[in-house]
Amino acid sequence: MPAQQKKLIFCIAGVLSFACALGTAAAMGSQLWVRGTILCTTGALLVNASGPELHKFIGEIQYGLFSGQRVRQCGLGGRPLRFSVFPDLLRVIPASIHVSVILFCAVLIVFALVGAGFFLFNAFGSPYETLHGPVGLYLWNFISCSCGCLIMILFSSEVKIHHLSEKIANFKEGTFTFKTHSEQFANSFWTILVCSLVPFLNALLIRFAGFEFPFSRSKDSGTITGAVDLMY
Questions:
Q1: Range of the domain at 23
Q2: Distance between CA atoms of 136 and 122, rounded to whole angstroms?
Q3: In a domain, 9, yes or no
Q4: What is the dihedral of CA 90, 92, 93, 97, to 10 degrees?
Q5: Which CATH number goes with the domain that contains 180?
Q6: Is the dihedral of CA 96, 98, 101, 102 positive or negative?
Q7: What are the TM regions of this chain, as residue ranges (predicted)?
Q8: I need a surface site. Which of 58, 80, 85, 185 has the fewest CB within 10 A?
Q9: Average pLDDT per run of 10 along the chain, which is 232 residues long?
């Protein structure tokens, strides 16, 4: 493939990696990881609410990695409340999982930026070291993709298995008990999914530029160059 086309492909991949880093950073600070509704079971049982009356006891909740807000509905109108998930709620939520999600988000940002830098370096520079060449690009993208997958798995288990929404809704609630009525992952969670797919797309772009996958190289092909891997 001509050098100009390779440069264009690496520029596109670099921009995608940089956008992935920005998207992950924006998702970390957002409150739109989970949206749902919570039912005030105590209030509903007191008045034996059913049908249309039950809506008076269904509030709303949305939260992210660090903060969130909810509307508390116990039959007397909604009362919006803001709360801090991290670090105030670490006593009631699975702290190790939650901190791991935050750490993997930070790692994803770092390696997405590293990948973007090396893509641009390969596009406009004269790379010669192995980690500056295709092997390194595959490595950075593999780490980014792995971090994105781990974020989604850990956060999903935190929400679904450990009932994160209920624990947040019942924090410092002495009289009333809340139960999750409905919940769904929101925009920031799906942003992480897209950021997990971007490294896979970048790997295909590297392959499209004419470079073999590292594990598909034949041991007998070409001349062994040691730590040197010329790209052009």
A1: 3-209
A2: 11
A3: yes
A4: 60
A5: 1.20.140
A6: negative
A7: 97-123, 135-155, 189-209
A8: 80
A9: 74 90 93 91 77 81 91 77 81 89 95 88 64 72 92 94 90 84 93 91 78 51 42 36
Helices and strands in the chain: count of H runs, count of E runs: 6, 5
- Give the sign of the dihedral formed by CA 97, CA 103, CA 107, CA 109: positive
pTM of the model: 0.81
Classify residue 221: in a domain, yes or no: no
Structure tokens at 173: 């609630």
Is 151 part of any domain? yes
Query: Which string of DSSP letters, residue by residue, matches 22-46?
Result: HHHHHHHT-S-SEEEEEEEHHHHHH
Angle at the Cα of 38 (from 33 to 39), degrees rounded to 5? 170
Residue 203 lies in a domain: yes
- Per the structure, how many domains does the chain have? 1
